[in-house]
Amino acid sequence: MASPFDIDEIYPDDGDQPLRLPRRQVGNSPQGVAVTLLADYTLRTRVALPSAAIVALLGETGVTTAGARTAISRLARRGVLEGSRLGRRSSYRLSRAAAANLSAGGQWILASTTSTARWDGCWTIVAFSLPQDRSTQRRALRAQLRWLGYAPLYDGLWISPQELTSAARAELDRLTLGAVTVFRGRQSALASAIHRAPIEAWDIEAIGRSYDGFLRRWTPLLPGVRSGQIDGAAAVRARTEVMDTFRRFPVLDPQLPVELLPRDWLRRPARELFAAVYDGLAAPAERHVRAVVERFADAAQPGIAAHTTADLVAGVRADVDPAQPSASGSATGCS
Description:
Residues 117-189 form the Transcriptional repressor PaaX-like central Cas2-like domain. The chain is an alpha+beta fold. The chain has helices at 30-42, 51-59, 65-77, 96-112, 135-147, 166-176, 204-218, 222-227, 232-246, 249-252, 267-280, 282-296, 309-314; strands at 49-50, 81-86, 89-94, 123-128, 151-154, 157-160, 180-185.
């Protein structure tokens, strides 16, 4: 089985929707890194940053100048960024729709890995049947189901331990045009020893190995984080990478019931380690981003501010819409 981190879509492909966030792929995707950088330091204010500063920050992560400029241009075309120009200087900021999406996504990532609610023993089952000539629609539906925390128990039958939310119901209606049926109920175990339990829709061992790999990768960094030895570009790179890695876990392990998991499940240790690294590097990373931006701006940018995991749980909102030059083109339970 391929690594669970090979899941292509963390954000669903919205097809013809006006906002299309980049795919979250294994490794560094220039578009994904650009979105993470802007979200981590400008999500609340949506302040515009000089394009040269964004290119410089991406360059510190290994993205070439050409690759950075291409990523910015594509994000603008996809409605993720808004472009503006003052004289010969172009700047970009997160669009309002992208900021709202990223805020909700950040809140979901943290809530999904900290929930302590007891499971009611029920499963939500989504059954669908789409003709072979609707393969694009079928792929979009599967990507959306994965994003919602579902996994395939059988072909055309996906399950989740969570209730179907109103937002999820609306997405399924949009993608299936009625070719779907949803149930919620308890498993009726068979006497046969070869029946498949719902939890087997997830590869529990593979998810456990992913948690273990995360802990092995980031635990050695903690002393440097706590002592303040990691700063500058290194702090920004580490903070971006730890977010891009941890954000995958709610899709791999979507609040699976602890009653059905191994006793030493590593969800909580991984969540605590993520918070220690992400929050611990917030201040030095923010200072570095400010310093890079100031090299390409006429004045300091007060809208640059790193948020913490507590901010994400509370919901980071684009509360302030600073004045910008006008854009000249976008560069219930069961019984």
